[in-house]
Every structure is written in structure tokens, then in C-alpha cells.
Design brief:
The chain has helices at residues 2-32, 37-45, 49-58, 65-77, 91-125, 131-144, 148-162, 180-217, 221-228, 233-269, 275-284, 288-316, 322-326, and strands at 83-84, 89-90. By secondary structure, it is mostly helical. Strand 1 (83-84) and strand 2 (89-90) form a beta hairpin.
Length: 327
């Protein structure tokens, strides 16, 4: 436990610098992009030069880039993400409204892809070269080649339009007045298609990684020793799967950033009101404070997920992090 806490503390210190680089880099990239929130507002509503000057002063866009960056970093130290020019509300409040939906979508899709993908990978890797191994390998390769947005559209056409089993989009039925378990069930039904579209792509990746890892472990010397000791095949498969699980845990942390990026597309396809759609609205409105807040929160989520992966590593393999802690 002490070793895990020491490793976690060191990772947290390094994460502060990572988040600082993300904030400064994102701010400079957004500043380099043409147009700002005033330009987007004037295009949609119209206005004269006097209004443009007034809006730039009100939103602080008449200041230099370094001044605005310094003001933003100072406010960030006080956990203030600024004011959204699109919603005329604090960025923190807007993000907190959408964040639970994205977290629910990500956690559900991750559980589906990692859990089912690992299980199918173990099933395929238990007998490398068998018929089930070849079928699952080919099927996973075909599934991984499908774009997520196309898979989402196909699921909508089949299950929502043709069969009418599931709703087309949204997070829950509008004005349904459902509460408790009824509302939870309604949300689960609405999330079934977007979770499937987001999770199936990564399911194929985990399946292939688990299968490949097990095929490699089968050739290790300790497997021959286990067979010589007369262990049952089920017991040997369990040991093989545990040793092949470590690369999968690593990929789980690396895929968290891609999962967030994929949620932007999936939320747009299924009209799910999460961070993905909010980022799209922020880009359309050139809302720099809101977009900065979304990217910062996303970076924090990725850092937290990777910290959890590091802790999982210390549990699965006690050798991990031992050199860092002892240094």
C-alpha cells in the first residue's frame, strides 16, 4: 500500500506539469485560429462597429494574448474556469451539467469493450489456431475497421428506424416525468445504441490484444512446467490470461483519450447532450473559455484514468513501480 501511495504521489506531481502544458498549448492554438466569439456572434445576429468594439471590451478580447493567458491561469488557480460567452454562464456550471452524461457513456462503453473483449479474447486465446480463434480474429478485424459514426448510423437505421425497438437519440424521453428506477431504465434504453457504437470498436481491439497476448504466453517455459506438474487446462488458461492482461490494462489507459474523442462523434450522431456536443457548440460559437474548460476537464479525466491504471498495475504485478519507489 505504501508503495502504491508513493507511486501515486509522484504521478500526481508530474500530472500538474502535463495539465499546465495542455492549458498553455491549447490557449495558444485557439488564439492562432482565425476569428473569435465576437465574429461568431456578429455573423449570427448582425451588428455595427460600435457593437463589435463594445463586445470585445466586455469579453476581454481587446487585451493582449499574454494578458489574457495570465488572467486565465490566475483564475484557474482559484478553480475559476471563466465565463462562457455562448451561454452567458460560468464555464464550470455548464460543464458540470454535461459531464455526468459523458462519464456515463464512457464508463458504460469501457465496461462493454474491456469486459466483453477480454472475455472473448480469453475464449479465442485458450485454443490458438482453432476454428473459434480464427472466426473471432477475423470478426474483430472487420469490426475494428468500421468507423464509429458509420456503425452508429447503421444501428440507428436497423434498431430505431426499421425495427423500432430503441429510440433514435437523446439521453431520455422528453417531458416523461419519470423518476427513480423508471427514469434509470429510460436512460439505459436511450444509451444502448450509443454505448454499443462506441464500445464495439474498442471491443475488437481488446479481443485481438488479449488473444495475441495469450498466444505469446502459451510459449513461455512456465506453461510447460505447469503442464508437467499435471495442472488442469482450466487452471493453466487462468494463469495465461492473467499474464496476458497487463498489456490490456496499459491499453485501457491509452484508449481513454481516444474514447473521449470518439464520444464527440457519437454524441453528435445520437444527439446525446454531453461534453462532445458541448465542444461542438463551443467551436461553432468560438467560445474560447468554454472550449478551454472542456479540454482541461478532458485532460484531467485522462490523467485520473491513467493514475488508476498505474494503481491497477501495482496490484497485478508487484514489480511495477518498485524501482521508482526505491529510488
Amino acid at each position: 500500500m505504501n508503495r502504491a501511495l508513493t507511486l501515486l504521489r509522484r504521478r500526481l506531481v508530474g500530472s500538474i506539469f502535463v495539465l499546465l502544458i495542455v492549458v498553455i498549448g491549447t490557449f495558444l492554438l485557439l488564439e492562432a485560429a482565425p476569428g473569435d466569439a465576437v465574429d461568431a456572434y456578429i455573423v449570427s445576429t448582425g451588428g455595427d462597429a460600435g457593437m463589435i468594439e463594445l463586445l470585445r471590451h466586455r469579453w476581454g478580447l481587446d487585451q493582449s494574448e499574454l494578458t489574457r493567458l495570465a488572467n486565465y491561469l490566475w483564475a484557474l488557480l482559484h478553480l475559476d474556469l471563466g465565463q462562457s460567452v455562448t451561454f452567458s454562464r460560468p464555464v464550470r456550471d455548464v460543464i458540470l451539467e454535461r459531464l455526468p452524461t459523458t462519464l456515463l457513456l464512457m464508463v458504460s462503453a469501457t465496461a462493454l469493450s474491456f469486459g466483453l473483449g477480454s472475455a472473448l479474447g480469453i475464449y479465442a486465446g485458450a485454443k490458438p489456431g482453432s476454428v473459434r480463434d480464427r472466426v473471432l480474429s477475423i470478426g474483430s478485424l472487420a469490426l475494428y475497421a468500421i468507423p464509429g459514426f458509420w456503425l452508429g448510423l447503421v444501428l440507428i437505421v436497423v434498431f430505431a428506424v426499421d425495427l423500432r425497438w430503441l429510440p433514435i437519440g437523446g439521453i431520455e424521453t422528453l417531458a416523461s416525468s419519470k423518476t427513480g428506477l423508471d427514469r434509470a431504465g429510460d436512460i439505459a434504453i436511450h444509451l444502448l445504441l450509443p454505448v454499443s457504437a462506441l464500445g464495439f470498436i474498442y471491443l475488437a481491439l481488446y479481443l485481438r490484444m488479449m488473444r495475441a497476448g495469450m498466444a505469446e504466453v502459451w510459449r513461455q517455459d512456465f506453461i510447460l512446467a505447469a503442464r508437467a506438474r499435471g495442472l488442469s487446462r482450466r487452471a493453466i488458461v487462468r494463469h495465461v490470461a492473467r499474464n496476458a492482461l497487463l498489456p490490456l490494462v496499459t491499453m485501457l489507459g491509452l484508449q481513454s483519450a481516444q474514447m473521449l474523442g470518439g464520444s464527440v462523434v457519437i454524441e453528435s450522431v445520437f444527439a446525446v447532450p454531453g461534453l462532445g456536443r458541448l465542444a461542438q457548440e463551443a467551436v461553432a460559437g468560438r467560445d474560447t473559455p468554454l472550449l478551454l474548460g472542456i479540454i482541461l476537464v478532458s485532460a484531467v479525466l485522462v490523467v485520473v484514468i491513467n493514475l488508476l491504471v498505474d494503481l491497477a498495475y501495482t496490484i497485478l504485478d508487484p514489480r511495477v513501480g518498485a524501482s521508482e519507489v526505491g529510488a
